[in-house]
C-alpha cells in the first residue's frame, strides 16, 4: 500500500468525523492545566488512526498525542487534532497531522484542514503540495514585507510580539502549529515561531516546509529535529532576521 495515499485518505476521513463535532466536542477535560485540554473527540479520532495503521502496517510503531508513546525504527507520528482549543470553541483553525519516519528521518507528512478542505503533504525529495498543486514559500526578503505567526507560550509570546511588531507588517496567532507552518509552506505566512512543541505538533511540517523551499531550525538557528522542542519555520529569506529578534528576547 502506498503510504502517502493511505495517510491522506485517513487524515481526510478523520477530518470528516471532526467536522460533525466541531464546536460541540464531548467530555472536554483539562490535561496538564486549564490551558491544555482534551476531548473524547481527540481520543476517538486518534483511535481511528491507530486502528487503520495497525490494520495495514501491523509491525510499525506509533507515537501519538493522547498517551500512545511507542518507539521503533519505522514510526508513525500522529496528532488527531492539532488545535483542540480552537476545535472545542468552534474556531476554524485545527487540523489532523500524520507523519511517517524511518530511523528518525521523516519520509512523509500530511496535514489536513477539515474546515477549508485543504490537505498539505510532502514526501522526502518529492516537493510539497496542497490538494494536488505544488506549493512553495514566499519570496519576501525583509521583515517589513512579512506577516508572521507565533504560538502561545506563557512568558515568551508577549515579549516576542512586543519585540518584533515594529519590524513586520502584522503578527498573527492561528492556534495550530501544523497549520501555521503549512501556511509558511504555501506562502501565506513568511515565518512561524513555536516556542514549545511536541513531536506530534510538528512532525509533518518538519518535512513539508523544507520540501516547499523553506527553512526550519531551532530558536538558536541549529538544524531542527523531532526532539528540538522549539522551532522557527520560515521562507528562508527572513530566517536570520527573526532569529536575531528571538535572541534579543532571550536576553531580556
UniProtKB/TrEMBL annotation:
PROSITE patterns associated with the record: IMP_1
Domain of life: Bacteria
Reactions accelerated catalytically: a myo-inositol phosphate + H2O = myo-inositol + phosphate
Pfam family, one: Inositol_P
EC number per UniProt: 3.1.3.25
CDD domains assigned to the protein according to its UniProt record, in alphabetical order: IMPase (cd01639)
GO biological process: inositol metabolic process; signal transduction
Signal peptide: none
GO molecular function: inositol monophosphate 1-phosphatase activity; metal ion binding
Cofactor (UniProt): Mg(2+)
Binding site for Mg(2+): 65, 79, 81-82, 201
Annotated keywords: Hydrolase, Magnesium, Metal-binding
Family from the record: Belongs to the inositol monophosphatase superfamily.
Protein name: Inositol-1-monophosphatase
Amino acid at each position: 500500500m502506498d503510504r502517502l495515499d493511505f495517510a491522506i485518505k485517513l487524515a481526510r476521513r478523520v477530518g470528516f468525523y471532526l467536522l460533525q463535532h466541531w464546536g460541540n466536542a464531548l467530555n472536554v477535560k483539562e490535561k496538564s492545566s486549564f490551558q491544555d485540554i482534551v476531548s473524547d473527540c481527540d481520543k476517538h479520532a486518534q483511535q481511528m488512526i491507530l486502528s487503520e495503521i495497525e490494520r495495514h502496517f501491523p509491525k510499525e510503531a506509533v507515537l501519538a498525542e493522547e498517551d500512545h508513546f511507542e518507539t521503533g525504527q519505522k514510526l508513525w507520528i500522529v496528532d488527531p487534532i492539532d488545535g483542540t482549543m480552537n476545535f472545542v470553541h468552534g474556531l476554524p483553525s485545527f487540523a489532523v497531522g500524520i507523519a511517517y519516519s524511518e530511523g528518525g528521518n521523516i519520509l512523509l507528512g500530511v496535514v489536513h484542514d477539515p474546515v477549508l478542505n485543504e490537505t498539505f503533504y510532502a514526501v522526502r525529495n518529492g516537493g510539497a503540495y496542497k490538494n494536488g498543486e505544488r506549493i512553495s514559500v514566499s519570496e519576501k526578503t525583509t521583515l517589513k514585507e512579512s506577516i508572521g505567526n507565533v504560538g502561545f507560550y506563557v512568558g515568551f509570546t508577549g515579549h516576542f510580539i512586543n519585540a518584533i511588531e515594529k519590524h513586520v507588517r502584522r503578527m498573527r496567532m492561528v492556534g495550530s502549529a501544523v497549520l501555521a507552518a503549512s501556511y509558511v509552506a504555501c506562502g501565506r505566512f513568511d515565518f512561524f515561531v513555536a516556542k514549545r512543541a511536541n513531536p506530534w505538533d510538528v512532525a509533518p511540517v518538519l518535512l513539508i516546509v523544507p520540501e516547499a523551499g523553506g527553512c526550519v531550525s531551532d530558536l538558536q538557528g541549529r538544524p531542527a529535529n523531532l526532539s528540538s522542542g522549539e522551532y522557527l519555520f520560515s521562507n528562508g529569506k527572513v530566517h536570520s532576521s527573526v532569529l536575531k529578534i528571538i535572541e534579543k528576547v532571550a536576553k531580556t
